[in-house]
């Protein structure tokens, strides 16, 4: 899997580096949900109703490839897969927290949704 922007870091910009890891429409939400124990594929898919199965799969693979999350397969029948933040991934939580707080302060309406469990 090749990402379009993975190697795009003009002037070695730290902001671009960060956006290459957590940027995009879904990654911050996925990280937030995994941190609040909604860490199974079916639960993520159910909570982010607008995301397609393929997009969720790709985003999870990219986050895993970047060392942000780990995929744990439980040897059960049927197999159970969970995602957890790695220690490296936990270093992103202050950014996600700031995004959450900024969003809450600036949203025009108070919507109850999948992000309210912080």
Automatic annotation (TrEMBL):
Stretches assigned to the HTH hxlR-type domain: 13-111
Pfam families: HxlR
This protein's UniProt keywords: DNA-binding, Transcription, Transcription regulation
Classification via InterPro entries: HTH_HxlR (IPR002577), WH-like_DNA-bd_sf (IPR036388), WH_DNA-bd_sf (IPR036390)
PROSITE patterns xrefs: HTH_HXLR
GO terms, molecular function: DNA binding
Protein name as annotated: Transcriptional regulator
Native source organism of the sequence: Aquirufa rosea
